[in-house]
């Protein structure tokens, strides 16, 4: 026996196990609290406000209420721009009006239904919610006003129902309904001075449909009871509701007015009478020289003044090129009932945004005009209407390239000390929201354009060692691009010398024992608010594990915004493509290379002067957002095609000159253009075109899918598109969901190993797509059904088809496809009255054969063989309503995959693929199934610990995009749609880096302890060995 | 409370309302998050809750619905609601079971009490010496190490007969054959997320070998 060597081994193995056990993470793949906000960040967006409500306060309000076209009502801190609270309403719940009432805010919302809510000023929680049964909302027929005496609300909805609601409880005091089948649509309510016989009245204004135009109808209701007092039918010809303004009123003592434009006249009716006054517009504006070049009829501009004021604006487009606006401010003269001009705003180029407010401490009106006539700055002009003079004319820096023109503005004035302070809130065309304040530190802006993100391209950053073209090793921006070798050498030497200065600190950091006990990083609070416009871009480098990336979002409004995936999502650059650019596609055509920056191709569709479609392509440096112009004739930074956009995709060709990937653009003339169009690229494309198959115009709502092929004419060198196949869907079915395998996906394993070590081989066809169609209103009284098709996109054959009956038509249907898997979800109404209703997640797995160890007898896969995959399908009850679906992607595809669901409850949930395995045994698992570690069949777990976004409210997720990192275990997850949420997720846990829990101190302590043990036991062992030799 | 309004425009549209309560003994609905929503049919109809915890669906056609509560704070039970005028019923249901069973009827007006506060995080297991030694694998290792020290002494004390007997017993016992683990299988397991049990099987292999 030789006991000592194994004994030593045993000790070491104990030590090893100690260390290993310390490393093994907890078994659940959930977040731990200290990670929240460290590995992820969340931007809360609300969209571009188009409505504001202020609590009128002499000292200036703390917060401003805004409503946006994203159906959000929010409260924003006026001084800092922070979001205090927001209420994210449903997709169809349009905000018709908001109004500050006794410090809180009243909202009128809805489309199919109608809600009046009083939202709390501090939390946004409704105090009460009034929703009349069986009523909805119409386009213009919603209005609210409050009565002077008791502060109760008069609410109009559907253009027909007028109610008085108690503003404290939401209880209905009275209800007046227009006669059924009435030709009048009401659009406004106003409390104003009554007439003989009725002192306390509420006027309801409506437009009565006539043969050619509308005529005005005014209904007077008794304010206390809602009884109809009188109906005034005013003889008039009004074209549209925008030509009518309600003015004055707001108290039973003040006169109310209606002003409207009727052909060449401005007519004003004092409410309670039936004889309007009339002024000829031409005469009215004859003194204003700017209106001489009037291009279009004058229009009203609603200044958003509170009730009781009779100032309004008349504006018109002037100038030779339709490019300027002139406007005059008018006020109604109480004695004559006619309007007179009180201020001429003059002519200004570009778009103007208007707003007005009451100057604090007075009853005077201040009017704001915001406009720009310079690419770098915009001008805010405030006019005191009574004194008829400009009180503020402020130039503010506002980059046209980023924000373009004003779309909305809101003026607020308050007293501070002796003077009057001004705050101006405004939205711009790109969707961002800004505030200007007299106090410089209180000007801010929110990049709300990110709320309109529709697509993202994820750009890997260059390594630090491979410095880029623009920035050298030390991070200095380079001046000269071409340098000699000697210069390079000197530069390198100096940079190394520069780096030497960090050496002592580096050594100290290792020598310092406290570095052993470093705590995990702590979440830093982040604010979406940008203060000032930051134009300096720090040099961007990849981190050690490639977790840091640039996320380039394209928005519905035509803006590109580059966001740092680390650093809490700092905005790196943004660029607005004005002139109606509809960004169709953004593609990275070159990744960061040695000395070459990454290049992003932006493909947008616009219209030219003659309303013809034009497709434009821009090449942009993805690190800076500037045009990327290499100086080569064949690589322009901007180019265009005189045709509409159909599709653009990358070809597996790289051009030899610029090392960019060749882009293939198909336009609506069915013509192909490659970018670039150099000779070698054309040759390569010709060779490739034989096997180039693709699908076009597959979109939600389509009734068929079609496949196309590229053809190159030998004589003319024309590259065209030829249809090859079409799959028309049966009558009544239309596409509701589409999914394709991501082109960048890596499949690590060819097959799946069974319990008995047999293998079933995965179906590896890269050219199949999932199409789900729905028939929402079948003819013979059937419930809606959906059909799932797996279609080979090369030859158009249907590989698999399944139908689900009794599907919910209203709920969203989602599908995703990866490797040999398809996952889709839908709402099931149940077959019989006793079957459960709920969401179902269906998982399909495609295999080459249903037999184990059986492969297709061919070395290569061809789409033109007749083999069909063997499909295993299973459905699982799923408890969550989802709005977006995605899958994790890793570098080599070895890690397990998680299916990511963007939930309607504003969270992101990660479900491991094992739970969606169609082979999960439905009866007691056999030994083989246990060996394969299949989980017995059960519904998808409903566990909040699977939420990547924990308790955050990530509003309205429309898309989830993932990107691999250099760590096989880890995926960067980007969820967007309104809010943006970015996190890192490891579906199989982070097996390739040390656990977060791992502490160096533990390791050191263990080693020290082991050394001590060895120190003690060594003499013992030596003694023993000595004794063994003796005896 | 369920009220039926015989509306002129839509046939058999019903109104459904009820209350949510907070968690704990003296919970006030005011503490509920303003983000809380009550859904019918997976979001076909949705309602906010007011400060007193009330939710309201003003205009829902008669039929059977699944009512669920989306709250960032608490987990609420899911309810099957059969809207049919005065016959309106509500029953608790759970995911994955069919609705033929009408057990667990709920009182009307509907008052929903949360099951528990929602947990989003897994508490981090800090380093504890006791937990390290309470680990079954650790205990196993300890036992085998102990055996390593004790066995030679025991063997030395044993007489030769007993020794032979034991040897015979060992031969009779069919030791399970430990094949070399199949790399592809391990990887496949690994990629399907079976990491936990593959790591639990390996220490058995080592300890078994040591015994031989």
From TrEMBL, chain A:
<protein>
    <recommendedName>
        <fullName>ER membrane protein complex subunit 1</fullName>
    </recommendedName>
</protein>
<dbReference type="InterPro" id="IPR011678">
    <property type="entry name" value="EMC1_C"/>
</dbReference>
<keyword id="KW-0325">Glycoprotein</keyword>
<keyword id="KW-0812">Transmembrane</keyword>
<dbReference type="Pfam" id="PF25293">
    <property type="entry name" value="Beta-prop_EMC1_N"/>
</dbReference>
<keyword id="KW-0256">Endoplasmic reticulum</keyword>
<keyword id="KW-0732">Signal</keyword>
<feature type="domain" description="EMC1 first beta-propeller">
    <location>
        <begin position="32"/>
        <end position="448"/>
    </location>
</feature>
<feature type="signal peptide">
    <location>
        <begin position="1"/>
        <end position="30"/>
    </location>
</feature>
<feature type="domain" description="ER membrane protein complex subunit 1 C-terminal">
    <location>
        <begin position="819"/>
        <end position="1030"/>
    </location>
</feature>
<dbReference type="Pfam" id="PF07774">
    <property type="entry name" value="EMC1_C"/>
</dbReference>
<dbReference type="GO" id="GO:0072546">
    <property type="term" value="C:EMC complex"/>
</dbReference>
<comment type="subunit">
    <text>Component of the ER membrane protein complex (EMC).</text>
</comment>
<dbReference type="GO" id="GO:0034975">
    <property type="term" value="P:protein folding in endoplasmic reticulum"/>
</dbReference>
<dbReference type="InterPro" id="IPR026895">
    <property type="entry name" value="EMC1"/>
</dbReference>
<comment type="similarity">
    <text>Belongs to the EMC1 family.</text>
</comment>
<keyword id="KW-0472">Membrane</keyword>
<keyword id="KW-1133">Transmembrane helix</keyword>
<dbReference type="InterPro" id="IPR058545">
    <property type="entry name" value="Beta-prop_EMC1_1st"/>
</dbReference>
<dbReference type="InterPro" id="IPR011047">
    <property type="entry name" value="Quinoprotein_ADH-like_sf"/>
</dbReference>
<dbReference type="InterPro" id="IPR015943">
    <property type="entry name" value="WD40/YVTN_repeat-like_dom_sf"/>
</dbReference>
<dbReference type="InterPro" id="IPR018391">
    <property type="entry name" value="PQQ_b-propeller_rpt"/>
</dbReference>
TrEMBL record, chain B:
<keyword id="KW-0472">Membrane</keyword>
<dbReference type="InterPro" id="IPR039163">
    <property type="entry name" value="EMC7"/>
</dbReference>
<keyword id="KW-1133">Transmembrane helix</keyword>
<comment type="similarity">
    <text>Belongs to the EMC7 family.</text>
</comment>
<feature type="region of interest" description="Disordered">
    <location>
        <begin position="190"/>
        <end position="212"/>
    </location>
</feature>
<dbReference type="InterPro" id="IPR013784">
    <property type="entry name" value="Carb-bd-like_fold"/>
</dbReference>
<feature type="compositionally biased region" description="Polar residues">
    <location>
        <begin position="203"/>
        <end position="212"/>
    </location>
</feature>
<feature type="transmembrane region" description="Helical">
    <location>
        <begin position="132"/>
        <end position="151"/>
    </location>
</feature>
<keyword id="KW-0732">Signal</keyword>
<dbReference type="InterPro" id="IPR019008">
    <property type="entry name" value="Beta_sandwich_EMC7"/>
</dbReference>
<dbReference type="GO" id="GO:0030246">
    <property type="term" value="F:carbohydrate binding"/>
</dbReference>
<protein>
    <recommendedName>
        <fullName>ER membrane protein complex subunit 7 beta-sandwich domain-containing protein</fullName>
    </recommendedName>
</protein>
<keyword id="KW-0812">Transmembrane</keyword>
<dbReference type="GO" id="GO:0072546">
    <property type="term" value="C:EMC complex"/>
</dbReference>
<dbReference type="Pfam" id="PF09430">
    <property type="entry name" value="EMC7_beta-sandw"/>
</dbReference>
<feature type="domain" description="ER membrane protein complex subunit 7 beta-sandwich">
    <location>
        <begin position="28"/>
        <end position="140"/>
    </location>
</feature>
